[in-house]
Write a structure and sequence with these properties.
367 residues; alpha/beta; Rossmann fold; Arc Repressor Mutant, subunit A; three-stranded antiparallel sheet; 15 helices
Length: 367
């Protein structure tokens, strides 16, 4: 189904499908592929979950009606995965968001983009560097993508607002976070582009930030980490960029400053050391999907589902699972059946709330 043929009924059903319990981007795509439409997929959800061993109810129509009205009140609109406006680089991400809400100029996401992330408690020198990098990149026609957090994110947005910036938030499109960035968020929504994956009214909970980070990495040809401590969210964004085959860049810092340890670690692990915006421009010029940085963590691919119903009982696959993540191709080998059939059984388990999906095409059994 193409976006041009998307009826009001199908659009409503797509939102309802994605908001239903235990349906994420991967299972959403699999359900559309199997049933051909969201209308049919929503109708099939209870039966699929019963095969996984649980009772199930899809998201209520009343809830979706309230969400759509809240999206309208916020001055936002929906962008579906198969619309022509959907950014091509983001679509290549594993588990790309099938539906987002947005405010502003979506054309910015179709221009060359670079993500810039870093510490919330950044040093004055790092904030200055972020502003200089963002301003120079913007003058060169590059759109700067970041997450509207304090510190580096805010500095990058402020410096690139006049030339083009995209803010990706972990809350609903109508929630400003942090509160002191409410004015900046509104200026991005009216003069740039604001993107949210969560429904309107959703608070920025901790579990939403890694999802936001994958959108930041997915929109850009490369990600620059300006300053970051070890195990910070900025390093998650860099890892996701590397897994997606994008450039990973880092500005080095003093080993005496803990806020520089994350960047220095990235460089040690293969990220490209950059010291000026010109270094960034040279690295991403003519980006063809073959990054020059060596920072990579490739995972298993995603298998297609069969057109017919699964030929294996989900319980047989559940018996092969444990709380420890395992690659799907390993399940294929151990089950002795096809990849598509295993994916079908995993989908039933996921809808029943018994499966957890991990990065790199791995899955585990819910504790």
């Amino acid at each position: 189904m193409t976006a041009k043929a998307l009826s009001r009924e199908e659009a409503f059903a797509r939102i309802r499908l994605l908001r239903s319990p235990n349906v994420g981007p991967v299972s959403y795509a699999q359900l559309l592929r199997r049933f051909g439409s969201a209308v049919e997929a929503v109708a099939a959800l209870p039966d699929l979950a019963r095969r996984g061993g649980r009772r199930y109810e899809a998201a209520s129509a009343a809830r979706i009606e309230r969400e759509i009205e809240a999206t309208r009140r916020a001055g936002a609109r929906y962008l579906f995965h198969d619309m022509e406006e959907y950014p091509a680089l983001l679509a290549q991400m594993d588990g790309a968001p099938p539906i987002v809400t947005l405010r502003g100029n979506i054309a910015l996401a179709l221009r060359p983009c670079v993500a810039m992330v870093g510490a919330r408690n950044a040093s004055a020198a790092a904030v200055r560097l972020a502003r200089e990098f963002a301003a120079t990149l913007g003058e060169a026609g590059i759109v700067v993508v970041s997450g509207l957090a304090r510190g580096i994110d805010g500095a990058a947005h402020e410096a690139s607002l006049a030339t083009g910036t995209i803010g990706v938030i972990a809350s609903g499109i109508d929630i400003a976070y942090p509160p002191e960035h409410a004015d900046l968020q509104e200026r991005i929504a009216t003069g740039g582009l604001l993107i949210a994956e969560e429904p309107p009214g959703t608070d920025p909970l901790a579990r939403h930030f890694p999802k936001r980070n994958r959108i930041i990495a997915g929109l850009a040809a490369g990600t620059i980490v300006v300053e970051a401590a070890p195990k910070s969210g900025s390093l998650i964004t860099a890892r996701l960029a590397g897994e997606a085959g994008r450039e990973v860049m880092a500005i080095p810092g003093s080993p005496l400053d803990s806020r520089a340890h994350g960047c220095n670690q990235l460089i040690r692990d293969g990220a490209v050391l950059v010291q000026s915006a010109q270094d960034v421009l040279e690295l991403i010029s003519g980006f063809d999907g073959q990054p020059k940085s060596r920072f990579r963590d490739d995972g298993a691919g995603v298998f297609d589902l069969p057109e017919a119903e699964p030929e294996i009982d989900p319980g047989d696959i559940a018996a092969l699972l444990s709380p420890a993540p395992v690659a799907i191709d390993e399940l294929v080998r151990q089950s002795g059946t096809t990849a598509a059939t295993v994916q079908g059984a995993l989908l039933d388990l996921e809808l029943a709330g018994r499966l957890v999906r991990h990065a790199g095409g791995r899955v585990s059994l819910q504790d």
